[in-house]
Amino acid sequence: MKSCHKAQSIDTLSSNEPICQVLDLQNPLWQQVLSRLRHDIYHLPAYVALEAQRIKAIPEAILITKDDKVFFVPYLLRSCDDLLPTSQTQIELFDVISPYGYPGILLNEAANNPDFLNFAINEFTHQLSRKNVCSAFLRLHPLLNQNLSEYPYSKINGETVAVDLRLSLAEIWSQTRPEHRNKINKCKRAGMIAKIVPFVAYIDDFIDIYEQTMDRVGASSSYYFDKSYFIQLSQALKNQLHLCIVELDNEIICSGLFTEACGIVQYHLGGTKSAFLKQAPSKLMFDYVRTWAKERNNEFLHLGGGVGSAKDSLFHFKAGFSKQTQTFSTIRLVVNKKKYHNLVQKRAAELNISFEELLNSEFFPAYRCS
Length: 370
What we know:
The protein has helices spanning about 30-35, 45-55, 115-130, 170-175, 180-190, 205-215, 225-235, 280-295, 315-320, 335-350, 355-360; strands spanning about 20-25, 60-65, 70-80, 95, 105, 135-140, 155-165, 195, 240-250, 250-260, 265-270, 300-305, 325-335. It is globular, with a radius of gyration of 22 Å. By secondary structure, the protein is α+β, with helices and mostly antiparallel strands. It contains eleven helices and 13 strands. Helix 2 (about 45-55) runs antiparallel to helix 7 and helix 5 packs across helix 8. Helices cover about 35% and strands about 25% of the residues. Strands 1, 2, 3, 4, 5, 6, 7, 8, 9, 10, 11, 12 and 13 form a 13-stranded mixed beta sheet that branches. A hairpin with a 2-residue loop joins strand 9 and strand 10. It has two domains: about 10-160 and about 330-370, Gcn5-related N-acetyltransferase (GNAT) (Aminopeptidase); about 160-325, Gcn5-related N-acetyltransferase (GNAT) (Aminopeptidase, 3-Layer(aba) Sandwich), CATH 3.40.630.30.
């Protein structure tokens, strides 16, 4: 197996000898891979760069090829030095995490077989070990990685909701929960209007509504983003980022950010003004976006799941728009068991719980449990 080294053209990668390459954001192979494989906005180098800047990490991707098989995964390399005693930081230690959202792993059709996937995951782990990575946590894509939930290195976390836009509008409407249909019709009768507008022109309105929503639900700090993040998100995604607003008497009462790539529309972030919560204008917004996305020849509107993948009230709300659910899985790799256990031991002491209790908890990596 060749170690990760200088870039080659993707056209030269189909050979009997396996090839692995670590790609930085400037490597032209990154875009070449995306031009060949169905992907989402989470795989775009501009989006990965923005996420790296936000959490102060190093953006990279690994490309592994063998014969006609292609395995590609973007990730963020995050320092663990702040978790270690000063005496143990001679060599920088890292862990790996997915960019915010559902990046997962990109595979071509030939790569969807157990032998190659096991080989690729093992090689991926080996390359991370060479970078002094302790652990890796990858969120898989519920639509693009459906087959991966069956493999032993995957863990099923829960379900997400998607609207199948290949159905007729009548079928989509019939799959909508009656309570949702009633609310949508009431919103229309009340004079609410949903529409897609330029994000930059309405960015302050969006942030105000979004932060009201996060405050109301008691969201953790990780769900808050400053204005510069949203400006950079707009610059990174350009015409792949869309803002939907709902107006009532010329007042914006609900808004949501949606992304669009390769026939997949994703609900990214959004919210409703507290004063209008009972009228449920977000139901009108999602109904409008379903039709808008279908008219643009997209195949899926992915709404996501509940908080922390739970089947909570948020999941129940989203499930009212479609009967189609997808399995959401993650890949959890302990790359260096000794260093992983050392970090878990330190964190367990800080939390005043036993090492075994923290190690066996659902949180991964366990040493970042709060």
